[in-house]
Design brief:
alpha+beta, 2 domains, five-stranded antiparallel sheet, 27% helix, 25% strand
Length: 224
């Protein structure tokens, strides 16, 4: 036996049940394209590759799988058909909230929006490290945004501490990274290193992060 879940931009549905019924027939009128939907979809497939056989609508990220139905809806909604007892079910609404998406279960007719999740909710999937990269001109912007997420008062003194700090770094060397702590809730250590011969700075964020925070950090790195 299986069940369906749908995800769309928060606030997009006045009547979630009706929208879910339409989406089952790939009728997505009224849903606007948004890159956050694609980013959420990509994160689902990264964390749970087996979802490639359970996800809709079709998109080129499914590789050699034969296209079915419409191929222009992947940036409007995500639908998954899951077997009962699938291990990651309870994490999906939390992960979706990190991308600004509602989660809807047509079986129970339950809509979960980002604002309905308790702010202090413990997420079952703690993350110890997030890796990515940004252009060197976006390092300060990244640190400022992460500071907002964890309630750290990033200021000019932090920016001054970073001046010239990356000049001798090298992301190919074990000891070639610069570590900078952001003391918020939680405390995170931001590890930075230049990629030789380029304007890319590799980023490694370490600390005890819940799924929502880790997803937000990954998303901001993707967008910068």
């Amino acid at each position: 036996m299986s069940y369906d879940l749908y995800f769309w931009l928060s606030g997009a549905a006045r009547h979630p049940r009706r929208l879910a019924d339409r989406l089952a027939d790939e009728k997505a009128d009224g849903l606007v394209p948004d890159k956050r939907v694609l980013a959420f979809r990509a994160e689902l497939l990264r964390r749970w590759p087996d979802l490639a056989d359970m996800i809709a609508p079709w998109h080129q990220d499914l590789g050699r799988r034969q296209p079915w139905g419409r191929t222009d809806l992947a940036d409007r909604f995500v639908g998954v058909t899951l077997p009962y007892g699938w291990e990651g079910t309870s994490a999906l609404p939390v992960l979706a909230a990190g991308y600004g998406l509602d989660s809807y279960d047509p079986q129970s007719e339950q809509l979960v929006s980002p604002g309905s999740l308790p702010q202090d909710r413990g997420v079952l999937d703690d993350v110890a490290q997030v890796d990515g990269w940004v252009n060197e001109q976006h390092v300060v912007q990244l640190l400022r945004q992460i500071s907002v997420y964890i309630g750290y008062a990033y200021d000019d003194l932090d920016e001054a501490a970073l001046t010239g700090a990356l000049d001798d770094t090298n992301d190919e060397a074990v000891d070639g990274w610069f570590d900078y702590p952001l003391v918020g809730t939680p405390t995170l250590v931001i590890r930075l290193a230049q990629s030789p011969g380029s304007a890319v700075v590799s980023v490694r964020v370490e600390g005890t992060m819940d799924l929502v925070l880790a997803t937000r950090i990954e998303t901001v790195m993707d967008l910068l």
